[in-house]
Amino acid sequence: MRNVGTVVWFVGTVVWFIGAVVWIAGTVVWTVGTVMRNVGTVVWIVGTVVRIAGSVVRIVGIVVRTVWIVMWIVGAVVWFIGTVVWILVTVVWTVWTVMRNVGTVVWIVGTVVRIVGAVVRIVGTVMRVVGIVV
Q1: I need a labelling partner for 27 at 20 to 30 A (CA). Which of 17, 44, 50, 111 fits?
Q2: Membrane: is it a keyword of this entry (predicted)?
Q3: How many CB atoms lie within 10 A of CB 35?
Q4: What is the pLDDT at residue 134?
């Protein structure tokens, strides 16, 4: 009984360590996702500012008839750049959301595995104690 308890305790320790590794991996994924979200937010703000600047430049180009064509082209280019940046932000934000959700799931799985490992270690310890007493 004592040897069985030792084996169960050892298996519980291994499972607990696997849970710790999974938990750490989930934390890393979640942290990377958070950093990507922050980067995405900054890029989104820049894209919004550039799009607004592009719209302003387009309006000025319409008002100033003498340089209307040049101003409109500049505004269109700036607006296009802003649109591209905005699309990139949307992609980064989506990736961040997915990574954050995956990281949360991995973290939860790691926590559950760690709890199971701890329970198995406790059972193994009890079995060892019972084996020593008997």
Answers
A1: 44
A2: yes
A3: 12
A4: 64
